[in-house]
Design goal:
Elements lengths: L14 E6 L7 E2 L2 E2 L16 E6 L4 E2 L6 H6 L1 H13 L4 E6 L7 H22 L1 E6 L11 E2 L7 H14 L2 E5 L9 E2 L8 E7 L30 E6 L1 E2 L11 E2 L2 H17 L8 H11 L1 E4 L6 E4 L2 H4 L18 H11 L21 H13 L10
Parallel strand pairs: 1-6, 1-7, 4-6, 7-9, 9-11, 11-12
Antiparallel strand pairs: 2-3, 4-5, 8-10, 13-14, 15-16
Helix pairs in contact: 2-5, 3-4, 8-9
Length: 384
């Protein structure tokens, strides 16, 4: 599902939090407000897709003060947000500004942690179901590229786990543009993070970041991949048109463009009728299992490229996956039964509570068993 299918009709009522350079909510293109006419008033206004904006540099919420130099350097977060918005045009956006440029990785890392904590506290308030991170950040002195899952990044691991298991929020991260086939950047390498590499979305053009022969669904020459990469999505010549009033190009490339395709797809799926009560694990399972298998010509490794239409054709269900490994185990189902029988605290497995009412019902346990047995089975197209 690339830019050609942005307007295929899959809309969502959930929100994506974009951890980046900020979100210029009142940006116009062709005389129209990019994120809705209500954005002329500000975030949270009726008919404005931007629900909130938090600036972790200034500590201010919904701050209208944007110096010119910061505006020009801050377009990246707006571009990323626009891609997610095009994929899920009825979803909300929450802008979380953690940097202006890449001059201070140590402080960037700390602000990313603050942003993830903020999402954990406000996910229910704003309906956040996905966090989009494109930064390659790690503790100062640490290598940003990792050749295996980076469990040693304990601060990130803890926050990703909390978002997944306590808030049903998926963290999506760009794999990086280092042309590696054996490594991902931090935080894409963190266990539980949905890492996203890039494929081309068109043919007959010269890639902007390297020399290659481009055609749809070919892994982009700049994209990092690794055996533990989760998904692929379009990441070259992604046209938003949002910068035309600024006299800048409307196309862009990079795994930064691929990641918001996935974040937007998550928001779209979680807003579709019948899927609202899905857990994070089941949403990810839909995207992975229904993705088109693409072989990385550089390494021979295969990865699923997201296909939102196919994912939307899967059966609604819920899941009790508590260790965010993408499947429900017998032990997790047993925990759900224990919760039902009041033999364990309900917080032990919050994802078994499909409708979020604080109680795990027999029906929800049956749904978890169905996931265990069938892993979100496909339904015939057109069947509700």
């Amino acid at each position: 599902m690339g830019s050609r299918r942005w307007r295929a009709g899959y809309v969502g009522g959930r929100a994506v939090a974009v951890v980046d350079t900020g979100l210029l909510w009142n940006l116009t293109a062709g005389g129209q407000f990019v994120f809705g006419p209500g954005c002329a008033v500000g975030p949270g206004s009726p008919n404005c897709a931007v629900l909130w904006h938090r600036n972790f540099l200034s500590g201010l919420d919904n701050d209208f003060s944007r110096p010119t130099d910061e505006l020009l350097r801050g377009l990246h977060g707006t571009w990323v947000s626009a891609i997610a918005y095009r994929v899920a045009p009825s979803a909300g956006l929450v802008g979380l500004k953690v940097l202006v440029d890449r001059a201070d990785p140590e402080r960037d890392f700390g602000r990313v942690l603050q942003a993830l904590d903020w999402v954990a506290e406000h996910a229910l308030q704003f309906g956040i179901v996905a966090v989009n991170i494109i930064l390659a950040v790690a503790r100062q002195g640490d290598a940003v590229l990792r050749q295996e899952p980076c469990r040693e990044e304990a601060e990130l691991v803890a926050r990703v786990r909390r978002l997944w298991c306590e808030r049903d929020v998926l963290v999506v991260a760009a794999s990086g543009n280092d042309r590696r086939t054996d490594a991902l950047t931090v935080p894409a390498c963190v266990p539980g993070v949905v890492s996203v590499g890039a494929v081309y979305d068109a043919a007959d053009f010269a890639p902007s970041k390297c020399i290659d022969t481009a055609f749809p669904d070919r892994v982009a020459c700049f994209s990092n991949t690794a055996p533990f990469l989760k998904l692929l999505a379009p990441g070259e010549r992604i046209t938003t048109g949002i910068f035309q009033d600024l006299g800048r190009e409307g196309e862009g490339a990079g795994t930064s463009a691929a990641a918001p395709h996935v974040s937007g797809a998550i928001a779209a799926l979680r807003g579709v009728g019948g899927f609202e009560e899905d857990s994070a694990a089941c949403t990810l399972a839909r995207l992975v299992r229904t993705g088109r298998v693409v072989t990385d010509h550089r390494s021979g490794l295969q990865f699923p490229r997201i296909d939102l239409a196919a994912a939307a054709a899967t059966l609604p269900t819920s899941t009790g996956d508590c260790n965010f490994d993408g499947r429900v185990t017998a032990n997790e189902i047993e925990r759900a039964v224990d919760i039902l029988l009041s033999r364990a605290p309900r917080i032990v497995c919050p994802n078994a509570d499909g409708n979020g009412d604080g109680a795990v019902t027999l029906g929800e346990i049956v749904a978890a068993v169905n996931v265990r047995l069938h892993a979100c089975p496909l339904r015939p197209v057109g069947v509700v």
